[in-house]
Automatic annotation (TrEMBL):
InterPro entries: AB_hydrolase_1, AB_hydrolase_fold. Residues 21-255 form the AB hydrolase-1 domain. It comes from Zeaxanthinibacter enoshimensis. This is Sigma-B regulation protein RsbQ. Belongs to the AB hydrolase superfamily. Pfam families: Abhydrolase_6. The lineage of its organism: Bacteria, Pseudomonadati, Bacteroidota, Flavobacteriia, Flavobacteriales. SUPFAM superfamilies: alpha/beta-Hydrolases.
Length: 269
């Protein structure tokens, strides 16, 4: 199996310390384009697309493998194996925060740190836990997705992106949603929004950073604080950025936060 082709892996940059960027649900590696230039000179950058996203090999999708986030975590592990990567700093957006955690739990020797952008271990409100959504509301969203895929994308994109003053970003996200295979996207949506990875947080042993946006309807402040509290070795930075995609809507602040963590917490100069 050609992992590089399967996940459309790209390697760039002039450094040796690896920064791997993992995109969120409904996205692909191009969503990191505002962040990458800040790190190309000093880091080895690894970008990829999950199977079914971007320019990945869609023929490699199987329901058996990708029936849970563990299948996507295995993709990350196999990319590390294929490129012989060690001490990876993984920057994961949204659901990729959990995917990255699962990969680090299984193979902690591959990872130096996790940078979690707008993470959520569980999107559904539970007793004593506020995930942000009632289960029936997410079931309704899945039903809309099944019956009116374009309508679903046009509804969800502005909720995720916010920042109405930058309409091009919302349009890009909506287009990204619609460009992917409907069945694969439905599968990814269900395991994204209905997974509960709260018990996995305590198993993460590598240092982590939580980047928490303000006014994030997908992963509210309470969720980011919950993640930070449950991780063994974690730091949280509160961002002025609004919405759920700060690497697109507020790239300068995102770069500042990532760089501050790399330089102060990880002592990378």
């Amino acid at each position: 199996m050609d992992v590089i082709k399967r996940n459309n892996v790209r390697v760039l940059g002039e450094g040796t310390q690896v920064l791997m960027f993992a995109h969120g649900f409904g996205c692909d590696q191009t969503m990191w384009r505002y962040i990458i230039p800040a790190y190309e000179k000093d880091y080895k950058i690894v970008l990829f697309d999950y199977v079914g996203c971007g320019k990945s090999d869609i023929s490699q999708f199987t329901e058996e493998r990708y029936s849970s986030l563990h299948g996507y975590a295995q993709d990350i592990i196999e990319i590390c194996e294929s490129l012989n990567l060690k001490d990876v700093i993984l920057v994961g957006h949204s659901v990729s925060s959990m995917v990255g955690m699962l990969a680090s739990i299984k193979r902690p020797d591959y990872f130096r740190s996790l940078i979690l952008v707008c993470p959520s271990p569980c999107y559904i409100n539970k007793p004593g836990y506020r995930g942000g959504f009632e289960e029936k509301d997410l079931e309704g969203l899945m039903e809309v997705m099944d019956n009116n895929y374009v309508g679903w994308a046009s509804f969800l994109a502005p909720v995720v992106m916010k920042n109405q003053e930058q309409p091009g970003l919302t349009e890009e996200l909506e287009k990204s949603f619609c460009s992917m295979d409907k069945e694969i996207t439905q599968n990814f949506a269900r395991i994204t929004f209905f997974s509960d990875n709260r018990e996995d947080l305590s198993k993460v042993k590598v240092p982590s950073l939580v980047l928490q946006c303000s006014e994030d309807d997908i992963a509210p402040k309470e969720v980011g604080e919950y993640v930070n509290d449950k991780l063994e070795n974690s730091t949280i930075y509160y961002m002025d950025a609004t919405g759920h995609c700060p690497h697109m809507s507020h790239p300068e602040e995102t770069i500042e936060c990532i760089s501050r963590y790399l330089e102060t917490e990880l002592a990378i100069s």
